[in-house]
Amino acid sequence: xxxxxxxxxQLWTTGRVVLVDARGRTQIGQDSRLVVHPATDFxxxxxxxxxxxxxxxxxxxxxxxxxxxxxxxxxxxxxxxxGLLNDTDAGLFTTAVGLLGWHDNARYCAVCGAATTRVRxxxxxxCTGCDREEYPRTDPAVIxxxxxxxxxxxxxxxxxxxxxxxxxxxxxxxxxESLEACVSREIAEEVGVAVSxxxxxxxxxxxxxxxxxxxxxxxxxxxxxxxPADGEIEDARWVHRDTVRAALESEGGAVDxxxxxxxxxxxxxxxxxxxxxxx
Length: 279
Fold this sequence. Notes:
With about 280 residues, the chain is α+β, with helices and mostly antiparallel strands. The chain contains 6 helices and 15 strands.
């Protein structure tokens, strides 16, 4: 479909457009569905800046950058609105944010510096100088739930987060590094403890701007001293399962100085899964 000879004109004629502003927000209706627009409202055929997100029930879904000024309350980003959407709408929104963000930052060739143009319905860019094709990037990042093998979990907070917000630890994978090695290195760098029994849990696309979060669990010794990374981790502490459960029940409120991450995030799902798991 991305390489259709007509450039996607057939999908455009009956297609729908998701608008995303420069801050990664789109309009979500009172029915908790994406607000989409007839593609022909924007032109008789695919406009140059449109990207094809996918097709469902023979309807093509496209995305365009919007000049929305942020005045309306029903425009939300993925953090505040993603949890309201069904799987299809969440996938469309996530893909739109990631793909449009990549185009914003890939306008020039990394090899020769010449301008690039959109091709393949927005899923590649071709250099006007050396004819090289470039594709959307995804940066892998690990996020790890560290526990003691019993009833305590290690949570930390960054200084830029809202007051009392704590979460599990995360970091980007470096070149030549396995995911498991990244887990061990990041935990050691951020809080100064060694982990074992690293195992994979699941993943979540996280286009801020182009990450793929890969979730893991690992075990650490709660008696080992915690050494938060200067300037990166403001505080780290072990928290009992009962406190985490109470924070979950508070639905965003703080319990004993603990406020959990938003429900749309993989971090929240990892913490909830651990807190509610039974032997």
